[in-house]
Amino acid sequence: MKNKLSSKEKELWNRISKILWKNWDPIGVCEEDSEWDDEYDSYVPHIFRLAVEGCDHIRIAASLTSTIRQNIGLSAADNNEHDVRVAKLIVSARQEILD
């Protein structure tokens, strides 16, 4: 991937960050007005790459579920509705911003 993001890519990056914070939040720390809204920012680069590469919501949801299990250390079912819903938001954001 190139080093510099276009303005549209930056917009998508920020949107994914917000989606992970407000909608995904697998450990339940999101507070709407919190200044500490960067809890999941370390996961943005991978999810962003999947989105930019055109992965569908199933692939993105699988990655979110894998992150919950492997990085966060919580249990999560395959194809769980929550991760699928969040992945659909990410795909919609990609389509809205980049397409």
Describe the structure.
- It contains four helices and no strands.
- The protein is globular, with a radius of gyration of 13 Å.
Mean pLDDT: 94
Helix-strand string: HHHH
Shape: globular
Distance between the termini: 18 Å
Poorly predicted runs of 5 or more residues:
none
Helix and strand composition category: mainly alpha
- Rounded to the nearest angstrom, the radius of gyration is 13 Å
List keywords for this structure.
99 residues, globular
Helix and strand topology:
Blueprint: H1 7-24, H2 44-52, H3 57-72, H4 81-98
Summarize the structure.
This protein is mainly alpha-helical.
